[in-house]
Structure formats: C-alpha cells, structure tokens
C-alpha cells in the first residue's frame, strides 16, 4: 500500500535530524582540531535556536604541549573566523592595510635602481652557464588578425619579378635557415619576455645580446657546436647550449647599442632610469647615467650613438624628452643636455648615420618627426617636419641612405625617403612642408601586438653587401618579414619549432644573420 502524507513527513524529519547530527559532529571535529593546533582558543558560542533551548556544554581545553623550537614554524593561511577576527572589524582592516603596504614596499625595493659598479659575480644569475671568461673572446598581412603559421609570402612570390637583382636578393634572403645546432625551444636566452636585441658587430661569429622585461641580459655565442653524444656517454654530456645570463638592471631593458669603434662596450638603457656600460672583456658593468635621486623615475625608451663618435650618448624617455651626454665628462660634473620634444612618450628614435645631427622620433602622439640638432631650441624646439598617422607610431629607424622606416598601430609600415630629397645637403634651419613629409611607400602590416607581445619595430641592416637596402620586422603569424627600402618583400623567415611570435627582430650590421626574440625569452636565429 502507498505511504500516507504523515509517514512521508516522518521520514523527511528523520533525515533532517540525521543531517543536523552529522553537521554537528563535523563542526565538533573541526573545532577540536583547530584548538589542538593553537589556531584559536575561544570556545564556540552556544548555537542559537538549538533544540530544547539548551546551550552546548563547555569543553575542557586541550592542554598545550610545549615544543622545542628546532625550526621556524610553517605559516598557514587562516581565515578571519579561525583567527577570531570579526568580519569588517577595525582589526581586520588594519591588518589588511599593513599587509598591502608591506607588499608595496617590497615591490618598490625590488624595482629600485642599483647604482653600484657590478662585476660578473654581482650580475650572474644563479644556475646559468657561463661560456668563457669574456663574452667576446679574442675575436671580435591580414589587418589586425594574427593567423599562426599562415604565410603571406612564399616560394612562388620569390620569382614574381623581372628585376634580376631583386630576384637574386629574394632567393638569398629566403634561403636563410634556422640555426641547426639547437631548436628554438632550447634557446631560452632570458627568463622573461624579450624586449630588445642586438648583434655584436663582429663578422667572425654571431654573438647575440637580449634584454628582457625584468632587467635580465642574456648572451649567446651562436658559433658553438652541439656536442656529439655517443651511445655510452649519452647521460654524461650536457646538450644544452652555453648561455650567459646577467642582471644589470632592475626593470625592463628597453634598448641597447654597441658602437663599432668601441666594440668591447655594450650600452644598455632601462625603465629603471639608468644607462649602464658593460665591458665585454672585463665582464663589468658601470652606471654612466642616472638621475641624482634614486626616487626620481625617468624611464628611458631608446639609445643611439653616432657611427663616427664613440664618446657621445643620445637617448629618449617615456616622458617625451631627448638627451645628449658626453662620456668623457666626469659623472659627478657631467652636464646632460635635454630637450622636451613631445608631451607624450617617445617610443623609438634613431640618428641619421651619415649626418648624426639629423634624427627621427616616433611618438605616442601619432607623429613621426624629423629634427636637426644644429638648430634645436631648448625653449621651443621645432622639428624640420612631421607626419601624423591615424594611431601611435612605435619606432622610427634611419638607414645610411637617409630613409626612415616606421611601424604604427594603424597596421602599416611607412618608408620616408629623405635621401632623394637631399638630406645630406640640408643646411641649418631647413624646413619640410606637409607634402615633403608624406611617406613614399606604405606597406600593410599587422602591428596589433596586444599586451603580451613586444611592440613590432623595423630594424635596418646598416651595411648591406648589396645596393638594395633592407630591414626586418616581426610578423604576428610567427615569422620575421624582410623588406627592401622600396617596400618589396624579400623573404618571410620561419621554421619548425617556433611556437611564439619572434616580435623583436634584428639584423646584423653586415652579415645576413637575423635574430628574433619571443615573449617566452626564446631566441630564433636564421643564418
């Protein structure tokens, strides 16, 4: 016979009481465990509304056993309830504020610039291998959408020209292959995202420097060979490449330069507001510039040196200033010459190698500007000319022929040919009108890097071994593109094992070597 409604309610009541008993037993167990571990000693208050109104009897506190202090106790995370702190109380708020202030203090100290003179032991990152006593040894595009591994320039495009010289250069550039000694996944040259890279000018071996987001400097000699491993000693040999990892800065290394006439010295700039000179033979690092106060924050965005003057540094800042400093002056008495060229960030700049008193800047205010140091006022600096893009301009790179390549968030690479406009013969005070400042060539190129990929910047080969000028730039489809100064694509470099965008792409000054750096700190090298 079916159950009546009274019997169903009775079964339900039994189940409810069983659940209450089970919950009470669990709470009792947890309370005893908390008391025995010393998390809190207060007895739980009587449960209001208990059945028959009786309060819960007090439990005898568990006696504490004094332990010998052999080691520091492990600090466990506890809720406010277990600590006996009422939610939203003044005690909880005060403790939360103190914890936040302490964490902020530690973060500030971690990012604070270090102005000391560093030796190798001071900079070397623990656990990293060192390739010798000295780094240099004895010699020395779909708009806005990334489609990984989808080529926009292939073998069929190489032959699409009647220009024999262009065709030969395309074949030469397209024949560059990934370094075959190690796969890119094994070439982790920095711990964090690579932000800037450069080659050493030496033509005897590819020596590559990479700076990352947290101030690390990675160095690799790509002339090394992978050791041959036999069947018997397979476990004894270390197959990893020799990589030197240093930490000269406390924040992002934003740019670096090696002056050809002073090839044993690497200059690095950082968001920690300093410029350091690293002696590649002595393995030391010396601070060459920094604000007087360590609390002054003037992040540096770019650095350059004239090809004929190894004694003068030029740099730009995220606050829009341009600076000049003679290294021959004493650091204590040095006078920094500064011009405020923009109200917004200058993301990149470069000097005209042939006439270094001309330089180009790229700014967050969407402009590429051309300047002349000979007629640059400190009160009201006026550019020779400027061109405004639809969105911010990331970088402006000069080559030896007077051509400037820029990358912009409007998904374009613009090429300005000031060489054919007679830049080498311009006198002080020369001005260019709006028409003369228009780009001669515009190449569509996806520059939407987002938050986690380093901004794409074009970089010229300064001394190419042919009349055709060329530059490289990262491709969001996980390639590196090479273009000529007329906007013709010469190659699209890729290969197996590249699993991230080689956003930071650089050319060697004269050899056809191209390096790319990824957000995971890994190196792609084509030789």
From TrEMBL:
Residues 230-241 have a biased composition (Acidic residues). WD repeats lie at residues 358-374. GO terms for biological process: DNA damage response; regulation of DNA damage checkpoint. It holds the Pfam family WD40. GO terms for cellular component: nucleus. The keyword Repeat applies. Keywords: DNA damage, DNA-binding, Repeat, WD repeat. Residues 282-297 have a biased composition (Basic and acidic residues). Belongs to the WD repeat DDB2/WDR76 family. DNA-binding protein that binds to both single- and double-stranded DNA. Binds preferentially to UV-damaged DNA. May be involved in DNA-metabolic processes. This is DNA damage-binding protein CMR1.
């Amino acid at each position: 016979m079916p159950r009546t409604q009274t019997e169903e309610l009775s079964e339900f009541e039994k189940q409810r009481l069983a659940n209450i008993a089970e919950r009470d037993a669990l709470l009792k167990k947890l309370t005893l465990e908390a008391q025995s571990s010393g998390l809190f000693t207060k007895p739980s208050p009587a449960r209001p509304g208990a059945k028959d109104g009786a309060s819960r009897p007090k439990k005898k506190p568990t006696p504490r056993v004094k332990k010998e202090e052999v080691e520091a106790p492990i600090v466990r995370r506890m809720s406010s309830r277990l600590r006996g702190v009422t939610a939203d109380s003044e005690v909880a708020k005060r403790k939360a504020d103190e914890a936040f202030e302490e964490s902020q203090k530690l973060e500030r100290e971690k990012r604070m610039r270090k102005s000391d003179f560093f030796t190798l032991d001071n900079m070397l990152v623990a656990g990293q291998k060192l390739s010798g006593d000295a780094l240099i040894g004895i010699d020395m595009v779909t708009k806005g959408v990334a489609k990984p591994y989808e080529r926009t320039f292939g073998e069929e495009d190489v032959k699409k020209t009647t220009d024999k010289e262009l065709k030969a250069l395309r074949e030469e550039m397209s024949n560059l292959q990934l370094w075959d000694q190690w796969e890119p996944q094994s070439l982790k040259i920095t711990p964090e995202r690579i932000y800037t890279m450069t080659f050493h000018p030496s033509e005897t071996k590819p020596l590559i420097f990479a700076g990352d987001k947290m101030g690390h400097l990675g160095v690799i000699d790509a002339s090394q060979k992978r050791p041959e491993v036999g069947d018997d000693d397979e476990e004894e040999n270390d197959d990893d490449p020799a990589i030197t990892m240093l930490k000269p800065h406390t924040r992002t290394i934003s740019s670096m330069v090696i002056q050809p006439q002073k090839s044993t010295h690497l200059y690095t700039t950082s968001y920690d507001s300093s410029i350091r000179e690293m002696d590649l033979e002595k393995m030391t690092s010396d601070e060459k510039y920094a604000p007087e106060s360590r609390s002054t924050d003037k992040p540096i965005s770019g650095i350059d040196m004239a090809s004929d003057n190894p004694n003068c540094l030029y740099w730009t800042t995220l606050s829009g200033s341009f600076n000049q400093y003679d290294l021959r002056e004493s650091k204590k008495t040095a006078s920094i010459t500064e011009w405020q060229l923009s109200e917004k960030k200058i993301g990149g700049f470069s000097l005209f190698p042939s006439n270094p008193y001309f330089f180009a800047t790229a700014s967050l205010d969407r402009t590429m500007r051309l300047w002349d140091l000979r007629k640059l006022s400190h009160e009201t600096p006026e550019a020779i000319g400027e061109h405004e893009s639809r969105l911010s301009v990331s970088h402006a790179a000069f080559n030896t022929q007077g051509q400037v390549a820029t990358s912009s968030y409007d998904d374009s690479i613009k090429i300005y040919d000031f060489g054919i406009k007679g830049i080498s013969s311009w006198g002080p005070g020369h001005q260019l009108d709006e028409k003369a400042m228009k780009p001669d060539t515009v190449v569509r190129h996806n520059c939407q890097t987002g938050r986690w990929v380093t901004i794409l910047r074009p970089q010229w080969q300064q001394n190419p071994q042919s009349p055709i000028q060329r530059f490289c730039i990262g491709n969001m489809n996980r390639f590196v593109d090479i273009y000529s100064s007329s906007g013709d694509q010469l190659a699209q470099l890729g290969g197996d094992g590249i699993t991230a965008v080689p956003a930071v792409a650089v050319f060697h000054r004269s050899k056809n070597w191209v390096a790319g750096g990824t957000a995971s700190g890994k190196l792609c090298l084509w030789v």
